[in-house]
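Page 47, continued from p. 46.
Same chain as before, 162 aa.
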Amino acid sequence: MNLTPILALGGFMLACFAAASTGAFFRPGAWYDALSKPSWNPPNWLFAPAWTVLYISVAIAGWLVWRQVGFGLPIWIWVVSLLLNAAWSWLFFGLRRMDLAFYELVVFWLSILAMVLAFFPISAAAGWLLVPYLAWVSFAGFLNWTLWRMNPALNGNPLPAE
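Result:
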């Protein structure tokens, strides 16, 4: 029995959850709680399960493509996109720079679109697994932009009590 595909899937999962760990390291706290939010802002409890499902989908999509073509340009797009994903939490929650986080998210979104376009010809299943990810990051981008616009005084600044 060849364990390589199973170990590779574990590697793709590990890479995704390493990227996710930035969200745990730079966690929302008093600064995020103090932001004015739109009425359509999802409840905080929704983010963890939504991102968990998305990270699993991203890992499986990458793995499906890797099984077909190995390490090539599509997987490098996957890696870059994952790094951009990880950087967003640092910019938004770590530096509290909603403006930089938004601009980075635009590049991140474009990387996901590039990944979808690169994956579909190789594996339709992999391409479809990324569509909800693209939709969620589209929503996250609009939310990021809205929070930035609603809270210009807190962009890059600590709370007065901090």
